[in-house]
Amino acid sequence: MHLSLTRRQYYALCTMVLLSPLLHLVPRKTAAEAGCGGWLSGAAALVPLLLFAALLEGILRRGRPGEGIGEITLRALGPVAGRAALCLYALWFLLYGAFALRIGAERFIEAVFPLSQPWPFVVTILAMAVCGALGEPKALFRAAEIFWPLLAGVLTLVLVFALPGLDVKNLLPVTAADAPGVARSALTVFGAGAAVLFFAAFAGGATPETPGRARCAMRWCVRTCVLVTLLSVFAIGNLGAGLTAQLNHPFFTLLRNISLFHAVERFGALVIGLWVLPDFVLVSMLLTLAVNCLRAACSRDGRLFAQKNPPALVLLCAAAAGAGALFLAQNAFETDALQTNVVPVVNIVLLGVGTVGMYLIGRARGKI
Questions:
Q1: Is the peptide bond before 173 cis (omega within 30 degrees of 0)?
Q2: What is the rounded distance in angstroms from the CA atom of residue 126 to the CA atom of residue 121?
Q3: Is-contact 233 246, C-beta < 8 A?
Q4: How far apart are CA 155 and CA 341, in angstroms?
Q5: How many other C-beta atoms are found inside a 10 Å radius of the C-beta of residue 44?
Q6: Cα separations (Å) of 206 from 14, 40, 45, 56, 64?
Q7: Which are the contacts of 3, defined by CB distance < 8 A and separation ≥ 6?
Q8: What is the pLDDT of residues 268-316, one digit of tens each?
Q9: Are 309 and 291 in contact (CB under 8 A)?
Q10: In this structure, are residues 302 and 148 in contact, taking their beta carbons and an 8 Å threshold?
Q11: How far apart are CA 38 and CA 22, in angstroms?
Q12: Is the pLDDT of residue 319 over 70?
């Protein structure tokens, strides 16, 4: 099986995957760390994100035709360390998928179905993701290409109707004393964006090697930081930094006071229902990556996406992610603590090891 993607499909998937953690972390955590200056987190994260994207593109350019970051890791680290790294990545993907499932479930519970148990929502999202992981990987990228314009339209509509409630006084003043908080909030944005770029880079060899490939990555980083800025401005501007920091899902809380020409009152449930699409794409992609990393690590054929995903391995990985979603945390408070304090640190460490560490070892060994 040969995976071939357009740059549009590639970055549509990146954006869809980013939307799920973005609306959970960005308005709330950036406001908690930087106060009313949280809306500057996107601008502050732009340069580090551009540098990371340039580093990742540089590594992919050193790969052989058709190689993504997984195949380059195997070649750079050698058969033993490379396979161990792929197994570590698979574990990372399953852990990230578990948190994505749990956060998606708690979003429904908090905003639409109070006092419900998380397992029906976890099972529903996971069943959808398994269907996506059992299909061809290219179908997932095509789905992201179709879903993203729909969600972009919904986001635009929400921001337009939230504009009358935006109070500029909630965004100011920002002083030099806020700089450390803005820097910490920028690290949150950078971690989420860089993780998405790294996940997608496992399929980086499936995109055409054109002179403008690096520019596409740069443009995606700019669009991402603009989106982060808009979400933060509207959340903090409407709700205030203090309330935004206290809410688990401030963006969806913002929807409760919005009506659509008085025809659809409090249409937040509709928007939250649509947000199952980013959850589906994210968890499907993570399952697909985990399956391919494990298959490549445990076989002589070190190529990812070379074969159709084995159904038994997909179901095994799905069961592991589902169990993690249900048992890693007992309530929303524990989930929030792990998602805000543990997952970002793990992301940053593994991103550093997976890019800078792998590149330096590969260059020292003369393999890349």
A1: yes
A2: 8
A3: no
A4: 28
A5: 23
A6: 14, 35, 28, 15, 11
A7: 137, 138, 203, 206, 305
A8: 667 777 888 999 999 999 999 999 999 988 887 777 887 888 899 999 9
A9: yes
A10: no
A11: 14
A12: yes
Short-list 99, 17, 104, 140, CA closest to 320: 99
Nearest 5°: the CA angle 10, 3, 296 is 105
CB atoms within 10 A of CB 4: 12
Q: Which helix (H) or strand (E) holds 264?
A: strand 264-265
Rounded distance between C-alpha atoms, residue 282 and residue 310, angstroms: 19
Residues pairing with 264 in the sheet? 260
- Is 121 in contact with 343 (CB distance < 8 Å)? no
Handedness of CA 280, 281, 287, 288 (dihedral sign): positive
Dihedral sign for Cα 232, 235, 238, 239, please.
Answer: negative
Mean pLDDT of the chain: 87
Rounding to the nearest 10 degrees, give the CA dihedral for residues 308, 312, 313, 314: 70
Contacts with 43 (C-beta within 8 Å, 6 or more apart), sequence order:
225, 229
The amino acid occupying position 140 is L
Residue 284 φ/ψ, nearest 5 degrees: -60, -45
Q: Are 283 and 126 in contact (CB under 8 A)?
A: yes
Please report where in the chains the tokens 């330096």 appear, as a residue. Answer: 360
Lowest-pLDDT range of 77-91, 108-122, 193-207: 108-122
Q: How far is CA 123 from CA 11, 57, 128, in A?
A: 28, 36, 9
Given pLDDT bands bounded at 50, 70 and 90, which one contains residue 176? confident
pTM over 0.90: yes
List, in order, residues 6 or more apart from 295 with CB less than 8 Å away.
Answer: 304, 307, 310, 313
Place of tokens 């500057």: 40
Phi, psi angle pair for 265, to nearest 5°: -85, 135
Q: CA 161, 190, 292: angle at the middle one, nearest 5? A: 105
**What backbone phi and psi angles, to 5 degrees, belong to 260?**
-100, 95
- Strand 259-260 to strand 264-265: parallel, antiparallel, or no bridges (unpaired)? antiparallel
